[in-house]
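protien #1 (seq + structre)
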Amino acid sequence: MSNVKVLPLLEPDVVACCPPLNERPMSADEAEAAAKMFKALGDPVRLRLFSAVASHEGGEACVCDISDVGVSQPTVSHHLKKLKAAGLLSSERRGTWVYYRVQPAVLAAMSALLAGTAKEAV
């Protein structure tokens, strides 16, 4: 039994932030949007938290399930706040716990941005 989940690369109503890197030079606005996304993921703890949410069963994760990343709980909260501010995660409070979900367009935008480059590397 495999735990591999196939995620759709593009949803019908999703518009990527930027063209693939090898399609044409980015505009200033496109570069700003991409840099914001990559800057938020540039920290190893934030990348681990983002990965934990994205790969969690059901597509969302309670903060209680993803806080074991080697830093204190206040630091986890700080990093989750940064990911939300960058538009990568959304959250919902349920009772005493907060549940996080990857914004639907994020994985599609990252995939579209890097798709052309990945094809050439093969």
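ok now protien #2
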Amino acid sequence: MISKFLMPLLLAGTVITQATAQTSEAQMKPSPSRLLNIDSSVVTKHAVTIRGQRIPYTASAGSIPIWDEDGKPLAGVFYTYYERDDIKDKSSRPLVVSFNGGPGTPSVWMEIGYTGPRMLNIDDEGYPVQPFGMRDNPHSILDVADIVFVDPVNTGFSRPVSKDIPGSKFYGVNADIKYLAEWINTFVTRNGRWASPKFLIGESYGTTRVSGLALELQEAQWMYLNGVVLVSPTELGIERDGPLNAALKLPYFAATAWYHKKLPADLQQKDLKDVLPEVEEFTINELVPALSRGGSLDETKRKSIGARIARYSGLKDIVVQENNLDVSVNLFWKELLRDQGYTVGRLDSRYRGIDRQTGGTSPDYNAELTAWIQAFTPAMHIYLREELNYKTDLKYNIFGQVHPWDRKNDNTGENLRQAIAQNPFLHLLVQSGYYDGACDYFNAKYSMWQMDPGGKLNNRLKWEGYRSGHMMYLRKDDLAAANENLRKFILESIPAKGQPAKY
């Protein structure tokens, strides 16, 4: 017998399994209480053309519980899972588990902006356009890997089962890693993917998450990965206080100044990738030692170093000197285009903002973030409800309340190093945007260097830079390039049949 809710969907060309249709019936009725069905899914059929090839796939949108030690449910974790239909042998089919960051944001950003089969309508540089909506993503990695996008607790539709569940179960570096590792185990088991090559990808705080998960999955779930991808990585618990913290941001300053044509003529006429190596060498070889001397730095040397900082950052020399050679990122975002009446964006410094007043030491708002929220929010609501048929009155949290977040004992960079060292099959790819001021590209390089101080893992670590910001994939050219690099990384990280995991 076909449910009355299933029939219209079948007539519309959408196929839903009988079991799923029964689960979905409650979801399709109004739910004034806005409660999540913690163990449910809606299944639909689709196709997309990727690199000229038609790819049929099944999309599953739903929730899987996480439980406490006594088997009582703590929360429902929402996910969307894309599985290519014309693959018979899943044992050799890669599975990518994808997270975004915040902490406090769902996987919306990479799902409909980067790797998923459908993407939001934006212009070629990533700015919002109307009408809001969706289109096919011709660069998606679904041709080579199945993908599950996961929303941690209190992001997207994910929720605790009760307000009485303490936030400490979810909201912290290590709590987050622990329960999500359990969830991944359940997902892999339910979907029969234990034999598949497995990859984690995280963006922003999601890089902290997947770096910790790489080791947690090995040690607590006995699940071994083939690859980890860090998109715009955080500091991963790797210390860089004092002079290092002050110095490492200069190459990002230089990239942003180059983009806005604020560098001296001899530098401005060069390509960005010809400018940055010079700035990086100065940063490591001269700026860090100079800042380490603090107040003991010779006055002549101080003026010389300050002049170089001004030259590479596009700032006035007096601004650099008045800030003791350490200009904060907030002041940089406010100061660089102050004479034109604009601020520059934090997560993507190509974006410009307008403040209430020209004076001050930091922007009123993040110009890029307001643009992204404007583009992504309506697109995701349209997509989930109208294309994936996930009907609910539950609020979709683009930013969920997950604070206070326990940041103690963040050893995720070291966790990732251990996981790579212990697992000869495990590879790392780092992707950064040159104009990202929150998780800047040179700090990402520094983290990768420190994760492998002995240089013994170099052949399995790779860094890539793009001419955009935090979400580099929003720029059309970088969407194509970054996905192609992901595709190559996935395929190259799978060992030949019968190859042993040994040194």
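Residues 1-25 form one domain.
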